[in-house]
Amino acid sequence: MRSRWRFSVIALIVAVGVVLSGSSPSLARQNLALPPLTTYPLPSSLATLPPAGDDYFTEVQPLEVGYLLWTAFPVTVAIDPPPRDPNNLWAQAAQQAVAEWSAYLPLQIVPPTATANIRLQSERPSDQNNRRVRAAETSYELFVDSNGLLRHRVRVVVRPTQAPRYVLAALRHELGHALGIWGHSPLPTDALYFAQVADPPPISQRDVNTLRRVYEQPTRLGQPMPEVASHG
Ligand SMILES: [Zn+2]
Q: Helix (H, G, I), strand (E, B), or coil: what is residue 63?
């Protein structure tokens, strides 16, 4: 167990790698001025759930922007399947993972060519680099949109070189990260368990309870960037 925990911590560090990019020059400054923390109303799909029970919210990490939750709905998801996807297995798994989480947050699949909040990919263009290749990985970027709001976008990479049910389990797990569960469950009966298990579970009540608690938390996302004094 000890070594598996270690693995999970390494995976999480990769997952929280953040790239600050955007059209606003102020975002690149060292003394970055961020919007204040704001709490949003719970999406009705979460608000109407029965009162929450057990969860693993204490494992979810707040970031410098607060919790990594979506502040506008539906959340758009683009699916980039592998070039060779026999019987559409990868694409179907991606659609199913989106459908499963759609029970809890409004998600909308958009064409691969469209701009999307979340992009599910089978591989990423930078794989030629000698960085370590992982079976699955989620990363996010912050940017300032055309209305001056601090936003994020998420990229999920799940490789097709696994048995279909593991591809689905990985997509389900990573999509949980993409929707805001920025941490791992210590129990193998949760989709956000830190390790792959032989018989992957569906989204659990604990996963959903944790997601709801995330959306009750404050974030700096979705708010206007503060005016920054110009330095000529
Ligand atoms: Zn994970």
A: strand
